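Calponin-homology (CH) domain-containing protein
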Amino acid sequence: MEWRQQTSLSCADAFNEAQRWIEEVTGKLFGCSDFRAALENGVLLCDLINQLKPGIIKRVNRLSTPIAGLVSIRLHTSAI
């Protein structure tokens, strides 16, 4: 991990800063303290992209099923 050699910032600090920024941009809380778990269904990522570029993701699948999460992640990655 080259970036770790260039900074004194720990992974926990980086996750906390990313979480703070995502919550600030989206206006929504993670809902849990686990960074990965909060993002794995893709809904918050889609909301983030729509805040940065409004309307790019037309419909966010907010169901809490694994397939819905995969669809949301695919929408997020295709929008980038």
